[in-house]
Amino acid sequence: MAPTSTSEILTSRMRLPQHVLHRSFVKETVVLNLRTGKYHGLNPTAGRMLEALAEAPTTGAAVPELAREYGIEPAKVESDLIALCQSLLERGLIEMVDGAPA
Amino acid sequence: MAPQPEEAPARPTRQQAARSAAFGLLLEVEEGIEIPGIPELDAPPLASQNSQKAPTRVSLDRRELERRWSSAEHAPERVRELRNGETVLLSVELAPPAGYLLHAPGFGRILVAPGGTELICDPEPGRPEWSALLTAQALPLAATLQGFEVLHASGVVLGERATLFTGPSGAGKSSLAAALLRRGGALLSDDTVALEERDGTLIAHPGAALLQLGAAEHERLAAHERAILGPPEAFLDKQRYSPSTIAAAAPFGELFLLERSTHGPPIERIEAVDPFALLASTFNLSVRTPERLARHLDLAVALAATERIYRLRIQPGTDATQLAEIVYEQLAAPSP
How many Cβ contacts (< 8 angstroms) between chains A and B? Predict the structure, then answer.
């Protein structure tokens, strides 16, 4: 599968497929793929990003809120968010709802 | 002439079955089967002690086992295997719709129906140890299939709450449970504890009233200490005790994660428990249905939410009696 472009990621909405569950613990979020039976661990920041992705209309729309929350430059949040999305997409833990660039 | 289907042998009627309970399951045990540590019930279990799930029927029937297994629609998939070097000690194969076939070479086979409502046993003649396959493997698997989560843990009830110990094999779970029995606790289960979340409360269910200790721990105990644990008998490579009583189902109290370590305090409450340590404490790795995987994760969430999870470090030179004292003091301390 061809890697997803960053512009595609930023302009798309991400969601958890029905076969993926996530649960938050104090210092970790566990993401479970019910199809593969594999558990994945996310640190608290990545766990928060996953929540923000699930709520935002597009990946890019999640950036300002996260940047405010963590007091970090939006450009840095954006690059971290894109890296997280690419990693989760590769593992089938999120899916893009709208893949076409806006 | 077309071959006629082989007629299934007559199945014993339900009236012939005796009722027992273990791992949260209500068991209907066919006449002639004795399950060590799981006696026949004198009266139906109280609703508060039982999960109101469908009974699990236990029968002896080699022909029926073979008939069902050979009629499976799919080739069996080996979902678990325990080995000692090249020797297979236990295999678990799944073939829907027949179920899970547990095979301990030299001891016997048990077919566990997919919903955990039926166990069809085929013990090797002259091997009474086959009952360990039933109590230590098949019943916990049936409990998992019936909706419980089974931890690889030993447990005792002290006061009114269940105190559980988990850790790798050989960590000392059974020895610690035995030491707490000598301090007045009641055995909940040795090696496998069935848990369920009921109305927001975690309930721990008793298993078989059996406790197995290694030779070294058995030798360490004085006669009066052994007497508290019930009569011992040599069983496989261990000493198996049969305590005269077993605890009733009890609300979850606390979970101790045992580890051998020379660093850190002997006991500490874990404020941010590693969810993967909780997930790894499961007994059952064979059932991978989406419902069960989700339940497994949700049990880890429920355990973490109790905030009563402790690390118990077993340091060199510390015996089970001393460990029990450490645990006992912790339990007597005010709750966090």
Answer: 40
